[in-house]
Request: fold
Amino acid sequence: MPYASGADLDLTIAAGGTTASAAVGFGSSGAVTVATTLGTINLVNGSNFAFAVPREGCLRSFTAYLTVTGAIDVALGLVTVYAQLYRAEAGSTLFTPIQGATITFPAISSTTAAGTTFNGIIKGINYPLCEQDRLLLVYSATSTTAAGTDPITIPVTASAGISIS
Reply:
């Protein structure tokens, strides 16, 4: 199952904030609100980039990529980006993180060159899925210092893949 942000991911840290999150779909992405870093997400009032699972199976592996596409604002200090898979049961809009399905990329900063690509893979997840569950891929970022009086966007693209059998 492929995922790709298409254009730059919408990872914008709000004025005075230290975190940002965006869901990635099939060639597009959009901001989502995460209760806490790697916490729950309720899509009742947000963009829906979730994939519906057509049959019962197990999530076996997860791979993710992150490419820096521009300069990182020096005001953010070090920025750590995570790729996390979330699951909602059939009929629910509440997504919770899937244990063992988080990829943490190396920290990026103002010295990270545009074009730098990071990747990671997790094998042997073996997380059971039911038909009509929904899966959501979310990239989240945390910075070591808060954004100033203006929001700051982290210029990256993202892609990922999962295997279910």
